[in-house]
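Support reply, case 0932

Customer input (verbatim):
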Amino acid sequence: MSQIIEKEVIERVAIGLNVDAKDVKIVERLKGGVSHYTYHVMVNDNAYTYRKIGEGGNLFVDRKIEYQMIQKVAPLHINSDVIIFDVESGEKISNYIEGTPLTLLEYKDHLDAVVGTLKKLHQSGIEGVVDYGLINRLSLYESYTNQRTPMYQSLKSFWIEKYQKEYEHNKKVFCHNDAQRSNIVIGQDRLYLLDWEYAGLNEFYYDIASFGNVDFNDALILLDHYLGRKATLEEQNHVRFYRMFQTLQWHQVALYKHNIGLGEKIQVDFMALALKYLQIAESFKSYLETSS
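Our regenerated output:
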């Protein structure tokens, strides 16, 4: 299967860049996402990344909006330069960023750069950015699974009620909305935020919450650094609240991937992952209820 995909990658890159297929060499498949295929390729002496969307991936992302957000953020020079973008398939060819993913480094050594890049985005004042649409997005994801356990329904109801009562009308800024360490690369000259599939208007706390996808304490450490002081419990709970949403969102995505049999193909137990996300959401709910 990988040989078939790699042959397709070579063909698509050759067509996209208008070169001979024999001049395209695959260096490696890049780690990060579990369902998309992203490759580091060389075309003569030039390095690129090529992205092919995995099965069902276009259901969760509007590629036209993704491309619009990529164009919006381009003047900030915090993303890789996109050469080819197909808004129908999601196929993308970009200049390769020479650097090291933050997942392979001690992230605390780079907090200044992370904060500086996030603030550059959040304070950019770029106009015409679409709203991330939290509640509508969750409903869309649910429509692909049609699975809502009593536990999920209870957690979702709690989150929506609290959102509409306390958060819905707070200030929103241009956010990446998936600012986890695997999407951050420390380059030779600057820090890069990659993969803008979910970019849109949101509270800045949402990006802080995304940073804690592996260990939530990482998000709280980043929050203090972002604020330049120790965060209050209310500010910490702001991050917990949005991390709870993220776990509900990825619960539905994991369910979908399980339902279409993707787990068997790529050897990932998506059902176990879906249950784990739900358990994490429950822990955030309990904390928010007792600390409010």
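We compared this against your earlier run and they match. Two observations from our side: The mean pLDDT is 95. The two ends are 51 Å apart (CA to CA). Please reopen the case if you see a mismatch on your end.
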